[in-house]
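Q: Entry one of two.
A:
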Amino acid sequence: MKRLTSAQLISSVGDGAYYVSSALYFTLIVGLSPAQVGLGLTVGWAVGSVAGVALGQLADRRGPKGTAVLLALGTAGSVTAFLFVDSVYAFVIAACVYACFQCGLGAARQALLAGLIDPAGRTTFRARLQAMSNAGIAIGAALGGIALAIGTREAFLTVFVVDALAFVAAAIVLRKVPSVAPVPMRAGEPSVAVLRDRPYALLALLNMIMLLYMPLFSLVLPLWISTRTAAPSWLVSAMLVLNTASVVVFQVRVARGVTGLRGASRYVRHAGLLLFVSCLIFSFSAMGDSAWAAALVLLAGAALQVVGEMAQAAGSWEIGFGLAPDGKQGQYQGLFGAGTAIARMLGPVLLTGLILVGGTAGWIVLGGLFLLAGTLTAPAVRWAERTRPDAALEVSPPVPA
């Protein structure tokens, strides 16, 4: 499935360029306040998290390949709309449209993957996509960095054009991927069955809690380092490089250890513990006045964090795919993937208040959330298994107590 991998890489280049430069463009060039940008993104990802389920269901009914192509083109169009934003109202509308297409595209691509890849190989292939995604984001971030260095309106607009063209190119590549047949809805079947699947909804919630690590490197740790530690500010870049490179190199190897729901639950449980310990280590970086000591502590925490991140990702992919019924992968992946949108929406506000105000206690609370979510995953998986027909779970051994 080289074309599916290529499409992921191409679209991730556009994502990386957008993530690095968009906030400064809207504040410095358009003239919005940081609060207005935060509001727009919060509303956008909130709407997108809901739309992702509906668009995932559309992928089930109309076919994931065609839906993914249309949503990739829609993402390109929504990025282009950012070029014409000149007020907070226009920005909120554009952010909502962008988030809807992005969340829907993620669900459709997951459904396409589930339809093309044998169940035993889905998690490993998803890990390969994640490695490509991180590589693409790194390339895109470098392009966005050029725009930041130049700092002109034209430079920022060029980044948005590159982002839009990347999604057009991804749509073209996706058109060449083999098709997956749509699954018509049976008579009497609820239109969005995933909303009635309480065990799966609980697992999606636990996954969302685990994904709260996402704002750490982009927002929380830079502010923590600059305000609470003696470490040099450039350490943020070193930690980000360590995280990105580790995922690119090791994510596939980590995912190969996940074989069924038993291994997935164990990986998520271990991830919760690793993330808990990494939070404790990060809190220690505020102790003392030595820049080198603080830097070493932070790098140690970052190393543990990325191992936990990779373990959590591998386990969650297996759980998300393995418990989704055939013919409903789109809507189920839409709900499971909503955790990413919600983490992007709530994470920055929650974590900055928790860590920057709470200090060491805040790190302990955050780590405790990771530990709790990781621990509860196995019993939630067992509950979900009990609600499935036995035939649907033949490929997976029972989850241990």
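Q: Entry two of two.
A:
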Amino acid sequence: MAGKVQRDSDSQAAPPTLGVGMVGYAFMGAAHSQGWRTAGRVFDLPLRPVLAAIGGRDAVAVRAAAAKHGWAAAETDWRTLVTRDDVQLVDVCTPGDSHAEIAIAALEAGKHVLCEKPLANSVAEAEAMVAAAEAAAARGQVAMVGFNYRRVPAIAYARRLIAENRLGALRHVRVTYLQDWLVDPDFPLTWRLEREHAGSGALGDLGAHAVDLAQYLAGEPLVGVSALTETFVRERPLLAGASTGLSATGSNGRGPVTVDDAALFTGRLASGALASFEATRMAAGRKNALRLEINGERGSLAFDLERLNELSFHDHTEPAASAGFRRILVTESGHPYLEAWWPPGHALGYEHTFVHQARDIVHAVAGGNTAPAPSFSDGLQVQRVLAAVEESAEKNAVYTPVPGAAG
């Protein structure tokens, strides 16, 4: 069967191996490597991830990444990597413009696929990826998109509380994701600032996480949005060898920024609950400030990624004299993912979300779950919301339905 795992020959007790090949080796490549390297050492997994090969165009850089992060081999052509016999799962950690080509090729080669968010740079690409994933699922293959913040224990626990109806009918969802790494107008023009590579700016980079979390926690899709976007710094210094192809001396050594710096939008969920979102990489002093609050008829939840082991919960059914938000330290063994980690009160961090992500897709592969969450279809729904945001912003915040969303 496609995507078949390999069994160790030296030990009957050892679980079968799952050979992983990863395309991309920068920030996300390092984070995913940490996840793959650690998952089997913390959790009792039905398959043992093996870091078979890492791919990238720069031979020197990709070999250095392989040595640093523990990959057995390095490839400079992703097409070679996805057809290697020792690779059963392909992890796509490249810029968005190559997600569709690599993921579809890997699925067609019989591999399981994990793809970083956002799933693609366009709805059309995402739809093609979903079609490929559905065809592959019929062959027993798994395809999942990497919205890692679902794997924060406090967020997973918040989803549990909402599913248990502790908040009752939802009224409002608010999500803000604020960073400041683009505040300096002389920060160089990287691929994340070029539409042809990134698809969009803060909207796709940060807003995709915000949209996915809102829909995941609420358990329902966004059906329409009203949006504004802005690019505050429209030209930036070119990097040597920048992908724009512009010379460092042309255009005064600067190139155009072709994505948004900030996005602000409201939305409506299928149930009628209202939602608001803000995503920016130009909020001075905010490093990785992903914050959310959900209000329901029976209570409220609040979360801040910069305090990611904590969840604030208000039970509105309690007597008013003693009711109020209480801090839940999400480090107990009964909380999501915490059964394998440290004693209560010993906190986890950002990198652990990638360990949990690796754990979940390994279980999906071993258990034959060909639609693990978040699936490629979930990624397509996020992509449709992002496209509706851009359409609305082009029309000066005209309310824009999200195609395909129920409601």
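A: Comment on entry two: Residues 242-250 have pLDDT under 50 and may be disordered. The CA atoms of residues 158 and 217 lie 7 Å apart.
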